[in-house]
Design a protein that fits this description.
alpha+beta; coiled coil
């Protein structure tokens, strides 16, 4: 189903005491995450292993992630999530809904740590643990996201529900603006391609949300423009800085103290030709 998103499947064998670390590559820009966060990040299917102390599985993930096996287990924390899988079963990892792309990028660069513990039952269940602050897991048989409301509607609601920090750096503001532009483009494309198939209520909701996204985008653009032009929030964007004012006062003093012939020569040199 997601073959067009994932890289080639790779088989891994993890011993107890080891951790599978899925992390965003260092040379990958945060902008690549904007279209990727709405899709599953990785898919893992448990397969049979001859060693009872070893967990074997097949992993496919988006191509800009790197996968490493480290000799340490995930530290026990209250937010750690655990679930069980057995042979032939699997799960998908999704980015948590409602988290800003900047925060998601920071967490994904640190990595998603998965620990596997095999139980010696007849069906050999695998206990899987991970820190749920990074992402959330959904079993393959329970993944009904494709049967929910349109992805464009879900993304628009998630962005509108997010409380943006308008005092962030210009780089983060640019990422937020690009995310809104992408969602608005997806909404327009969805309405254009499915014009005769979209339910009237869904279409009305998309149009209303697109208008609200436009207002939020305009506010972010205004904040971004002010952050680029205004050096001090206590002064206007077109107000001269203190250094420029000091230089102007010095020039006026020089013009008053300089001889008339020198002032005339400077005026001729600086006048427009």
């Amino acid at each position: 189903m997601y073959n067009h998103l994932f890289s080639q499947p790779v088989k891994y064998q993890i011993n107890q005491g080891q951790t599978l670390l899925i992390a965003l590559a260092d040379d990958v820009s945060d902008f690549i995450l904007l279209p990727a966060l709405s899709q599953p990040l990785a898919e893992i299917i448990i397969c049979e292993s001859e060693d009872e102390q070893c967990s074997s599985f097949i992993l496919t993930c988006q191509p800009f992630f790197k996968v490493d096996v480290i000799n340490s287990q995930i530290v026990e924390q209250p937010e750690k999530a655990e679930f069980k899988r057995t042979f032939g079963q699997g799960f998908r990892l999704y980015a948590r809904v409602g988290v800003a792309p900047r925060i998601s990028a920071e967490l994904l660069r640190k990595g998603i740590g998965l620990s596997f513990t095999a139980e010696g039952t007849p069906q050999k269940q695998i206990n899987i643990g991970y820190l749920q602050s990074v992402c959330e897991s959904i079993n393959l048989e329970s993944d009904l996201r494709l049967n929910q409301e349109p992805k464009e509607l879900m993304m628009a609601k998630a962005i509108l529900a997010r409380n943006f920090d308008y005092e962030e750096s210009p780089e983060n503001l640019a990422i937020n603006i690009s995310e809104i532009e992408q969602v608005r483009a997806d909404i327009n494309l969805y309405l254009a391609e499915e014009r005769n198939k979209v339910h009237a209520i869904i279409a009305a909701q998309l149009l209303k949300l697109d208008n609200l996204l436009n207002h939020k985008q305009q506010w972010l653009l205004r904040t971004y423009s002010q952050s680029q032009q205004r050096t001090n929030y206590a002064s206007a964007a077109n107000e001269l800085s203190k250094d420029v004012e000091d230089l102007q006062r010095k020039l006026e003093c020089f013009s008053l103290l300089a001889p008339a012939d020198v002032s005339l020569m400077v005026d001729k040199l600086t006048e427009d030709t």
